[in-house]
Design goal:
The structure is a single chain. This protein is mainly α. 60% of the residues lie in helices and 8% in strands. The chain is elongated and about 70 Å long.
Length: 310
């Protein structure tokens, strides 16, 4: 059999990376040149092989994916590379995603809070005994579960918001802001989801139990742990930290001074909500006012985000 001489250019791709199938024909005794064909799913020739007598022995490699135009010996591979327009479109989509998420989160949280205030007297209902809270929950269970679910969605949206805002600047403060923002979204969602996940079963048990109700005792335990400790204490603190860090970093990146001041004031009022479980006068009202200001600050962030795009 005639020896085969490889005429592939040194820049040819590693054969191990080519998806192909091959068929070969051995030369006859009369010196008919050997023929080989390697082909894949795309039909792009990238190599040619000839035998020792200089007669081409057809060898074709057909790549499964088109690459940038390049010549390998006598063959070429055609490809489409991303254009400047493609890159601008992708950058615009990424820039738009943060404001959209912010608006969705603000609408979800405020709609949920307003809906619960109308049907469940929330958050004042939390100051009543557990048995009364569960009784009120049973009366409006479907609406309460739905509105708490809306609130939880708004809290979870805070996770991609924190990640998206974090890409605005590469600094130690912003990296800590991302951590605080992601944690804030997770812990607040965990606290809110106790209502759709735990409260229905506890309310049903409470209605069927007489005298000392273990369901009420369990409800009060989870209300303290997931509500007061996780959702409120940790949630308020982490939200305040994220807001102050983001406001300070973006102010240094060219955002207006009033934006930083508004965020700092809102964060301080939100943080006062940590004292609400201890019945500190005015703490709950300050927290409510803080979240109203914070909602306005977040919407301002959504508006300024596109105008201050880098």
């Amino acid at each position: 059999m005639s020896a085969m001489r490889d005429a592939v250019s040194p820049s040819a791709p590693n054969p191990a990376s080519v998806i192909a199938s091959a068929t070969s024909h051995a030369p006859t005794a009369q010196g008919v040149p050997a023929a080989a064909e390697v082909h894949g799913g795309d039909g792009v020739s990238v190599a040619q092989v000839s035998n020792a007598d200089g007669v081409p022995a057809a060898a074709q490699v057909f790549g499964a994916v088109r690459a940038p135009a390049a010549h390998f010996g006598t063959a070429a591979v055609n490809a489409r590379t991303p254009t400047g327009s493609d890159r601008r479109t992708a950058a615009a989509a990424r820039a738009l995603s943060v404001p959209v998420l912010i608006v969705a989160a603000v609408v979800s949280m405020n709609a949920g809070f307003a809906g619960l205030g109308a049907v469940f007297d929330y958050p004042r209902v939390l100051s009543r005994p557990g048995a009364e809270v569960l009784a009120s929950f049973r009366m409006h269970e479907s609406a309460v579960v739905a509105w708490f679910s809306v609130l939880a969605v708004g809290a979870l949206l805070f996770v991609p918001i924190a990640l998206g805002v974090g890409r605005r600047a590469d600094s130690v403060r912003m990296r800590w802001a991302v951590r605080a923002g992601v944690a804030a979204g997770v812990v607040q969602a965990a606290g809110l989801l106790r209502w759709p996940l735990l409260a229905p079963g506890l309310a049903t048990r409470s209605a069927s139990e007489f005298g000392s109700s273990t369901a009420v005792t369990e409800f009060e335990f989870w209300n303290r742990l997931l509500g007061s400790v996780v959702g409120e204490t940790l949630g308020y603190s982490l939200t305040a930290v994220w807001t102050v860090l983001v406001a300070s970093v973006l102010w240094r990146k060219g955002f207006p001074g009033w934006f930083a001041v508004l965020g700092t004031v809102a964060a301080a009022l939100i943080l006062l909500g940590v004292a609400a479980p201890w019945q500190v006068p005015g703490a709950q009202q300050a927290n409510f006012a803080g979240y109203v200001l914070w909602s306005g600050w977040m919407l301002a962030l959504a508006v300024l985000w596109g105008r201050r795009r880098e």
